[in-house]
Every structure is written in structure tokens, then in C-alpha cells.
Design goal:
This protein folds into two domains: 123 residues, no CATH class; 91 residues, Alpha-Beta Plaits, CATH 3.30.70.2330. The model has no long low-confidence stretch (mean pLDDT 95). The longest helix is centred in the N-terminal third of the chain and has 8 residues. By secondary structure, the protein is α+β, with helices and mostly antiparallel strands. The protein is built from five helices and eleven strands; from the N terminus they run E-E-E-H-E-H-H-H-E-E-H-E-E-E-E-E. The strands form two sheets. Strands 6-9-8-7-10-11 form a six-stranded antiparallel beta barrel. The protein has a five-stranded antiparallel beta sheet with strand order 4-3-2-1-5.
Amino acid sequence: MRTIGNIYLTWRKGKGERRILIGVIRRNKTEGTRFSYLKEGVEKARTLGFSVYEGFPDTTKSYTKNVIEIFGQRLMRSERNDIKDFYDFWLIDEKYKNDDFYMLAYTQGILPTDNYEFLADFNPDKKLEFISEIAGLSTTKLPGDTLVKGEVLRYEKEKPKNSHDEYAIKVFKGDLFLGYVKTMHNRVFYKTRKTLKIAVHHIEKNGLLNRVFIHVS
């Protein structure tokens, strides 16, 4: 799909910590799917306890065999009874449900048992829509009733540029600062002159806003 560029593997020490780009998955027609680590990210992550991703033990090597098969083990199997709800949540086009590269890009390969996420570098297109998440809620600590599902939010490119992420996108409800669009997902906002739409997709709360998933289109 034209809307999906590379997929970046991120890792963080724990909830509330910054996501670190530690690897990239590339796919093209001639070379197939390739995975390689990002040296700077790996070095930074190792100071926080990261080792290697299981199945890819050499951080200096570029992998071409069984890449998508290994990462695809994180995906929900299509025979599950609740698979329709899963597809609906992540806005999955079911004609691509057997394409693990597509599924990793759109569902982020999130598991409750580790701190990895797969974040796609999306390309602007009139048909583009994907689910992301507001980062930084553990810092802003907003009441659980701050947002409602379907609410349209506004965004700004951060100026001066954020020292941690030059593509930082700040998200607001009116004048209330909520947090940031996830790293890597934010880059599409810099690739187009058109205004993208951000709407609240799903809320998890426990007194405070815990997680807020957003629909970007």
C-alpha cells in the first residue's frame, strides 16, 4: 500500500518512558522484507536495559530471512472469536488481513507482555486513516472526563523544534494541551500541506486519562 512506508521497531523501559527507535523493517518488490537495527537507538536503549529482539541476535546484521514471520507472531490470529472487533478497532481493510506487514503497520504489534511497538512511517493520501495514541498522558495527568469518544481535537507543530523529536506534534482540546502524537506517526503531519483530522477513537481511564487512542485521517 502506498500509505505505508517503513515500519520502525520501538522499545521503551516502561509505561511513561520515551519510545526509542531501535530498528526498521523495509519492504520492496525486489528484496522482500528486510530488518536492521538502528545503531544509535540500540546504544541508547541498552543503557536502559534493552538487549536484543528475540530472533535477531546480531545488532550489526541486516536480516532478510523469516523477518515478517517472526514479527508476525505478535499478530492476533484470524480464527479468534473477537477478530471482527479487533479489525474494527484498528480500521483494518479485511482484504489485507493476511498481509502481516500491513497488519503490523496498522495494529502496531502491541502486546501486554513487553514494551515493543511497531510504528509505521505513513504517507499522506486522501484515503489514509489510522489509529494512533496520545503520548505524554502520564505527564499531563488529566481527569478521566476530559475527553469523549468522537471529539475532534486540534494539533500544532511544536516550535521551536523539540530536542527529543524534530517531528513533534502537540495535541489540544481547545487550548488545553493533552500530549503528543506518537513518534513516527507524527511525521505524516509534516509530509502534507493539508490539515489532517484527529478525533478521539477510544479512551481508557481510571480517575485520570490512562490511554487515549486517536483516529487520524
